[in-house]
Design a protein that fits this description.
The protein has helices at residues 2-44, 69-73, 99-107, 178-181; strands spanning 45-47, 80-86, 89-95, 110-117, 121-125, 135-137, 144-148, 152-156, 164-172, 186-195. The protein is α+β, with helices and mostly antiparallel strands and 196 residues long. The chain has two domains: 2-46; 69-195, Cyclophilin (Beta Barrel), CATH 2.40.100. Strands 2-3-9-7-8-5-4-10 form an eight-stranded antiparallel beta barrel. The chain is globular and about 90 Å long.
Length: 196
């Protein structure tokens, strides 16, 4: 009888260990899945907390403690500006009066991993289509934020003398230092609307 109790206790312990091992495996799978989802989000779009596009929590972009020339040039006039954080630097842009700019403004704040295009601009395929109000640009100046087609956001850090047809989104007020900040094949760029 004592042997039956010992055997029953051993079976109970083995079952308990087996169930807890399954739980650990499930936790490991959840962690792996979470890491994969996080990677996919960072490869496409990482909206800031509280935005309409938020899919998972992401830390807010951190600004450099150094104040850039553009940041110090912003006056407190109550106007709405596009704040662009890239490489620890802050740039301010004036939003254009287009439907695409208004729609993009509603999607903000967000952080994008933008890829280089021909050493002149960074680009990102937006998750939704924006209204096109295309204009012909004989050349595109450094600091232009434009929509190509209906869903490609382009941020020019060098002049493009070839120009093209784009929908205007914003123009950076003081683009000095922009080409250095956007150097590299892939760069994380945060956009948000601020009122100054």
């Amino acid at each position: 009888m004592l042997t039956k109790r010992i055997v029953a206790a051993l079976i109970a312990v083995m079952l308990a260990c087996g169930f807890s091992a399954c739980g650990e495996q499930e936790k490991t799978l959840e962690k792996e899945s979470s890491v994969k989802e996080s990677y996919l989000v960072s490869e496409t779009i990482s909206p800031a907390p509280g935005s309409a596009l938020e899919t998972s929590p992401s830390p807010s972009p951190t600004a450099s403690p150094m104040v850039s020339q553009a940041e110090s040039a912003v006056s407190s006039t109550g106007e709405t500006l596009l704040r662009i954080d890239v490489g620890g630097q802050v740039f301010y842009g004036e939003l254009r009066d287009t439907e695409a700019a208004k729609a993009l403004k509603e999607m903000l704040p967000m952080t994008l991993e933008m890829t280089d295009q021909e050493g002149m601009s960074k680009r990102f395929e937006l998750p939704s289509v924006l209204t096109q109000t295309e204009e012909e640009y004989p050349s595109v100046q450094e600091g232009e934020v434009l929509l190509e087609g209906s869903g490609t956001l382009c941020f020019f850090y060098q002049e493009d003398s070839q120009g093209g047809t784009y929908t205007p989104i914003a123009t950076v007020r003081e683009p000095e230092g922009l080409s250095q900040a956007l150097a590299g094949e892939r760069v994380e760029v945060s956009f948000q609307v601020v009122t100054e």
